[in-house]
Amino acid sequence: MVKNIVLAGYYGFDNAGDELILLSLISGLRSMDGNIKITVLSASPEKTKSSHGVEAVNRWNPLSVAAAVKNTDLMVFGGGGLLQDITSARSILYYLGLIRLAGLFGKKVFLLGQGVGPIMRKINRIMAKSILSKVDLITVRDVESARILKDCGLDNSKAVVTADLAYALNPEEATKKSSESFTVGVVLRERGDNGIESYIKKVCERLKEKYGARI
Fold this sequence. Notes:
- By secondary structure, the protein is an alpha/beta fold.
- Helices cover 42% and strands 16% of the residues.
- It has a seven-stranded parallel sheet with strand order 3-2-1-4-5-6-7, sandwiched between helices.
- The chain is globular and about 50 Å long.
């Protein structure tokens, strides 16, 4: 029975998208079991604690991270572009290292709503195949991410295409409850022809129709 869960991602950096993903994960877990202990690996642990009412440890402190992983039942990597080396090789090495650490402790590992790639360096693709092949569950947020994992050598059935975790969030949890209109900023980043623009357009149209949002 899962009693303790560690959440890992790009948390504590004041990135709005990743903080929404974290909120979605925490809300979903608490809706399933209000007694689950949640610990977040964060760049700003005190802020994460106060914002979400969870335990948090400094993601850059090796001893604190190792202790959190050792004492958990399940490690969940939530959303965002964690597995990529286009901005820096440090990102993919950091998260693959955490996955490997969880494996050494014999912990179950879930990767949820991942946006994978680009993974440019051959050595990183080799490591990704070796480490991710042992993960218990992988879901990705688009077909391009699934293709990249397949190109790394993972079995085609290993990654299930679902959606970005932010879409699971109840809008009332992420926006103020008000009859006033509000503004939504949309920033698109070119990451291949994955059809995401059409989905974002539908979301924007829905926000305008239901909430009177200005896009």
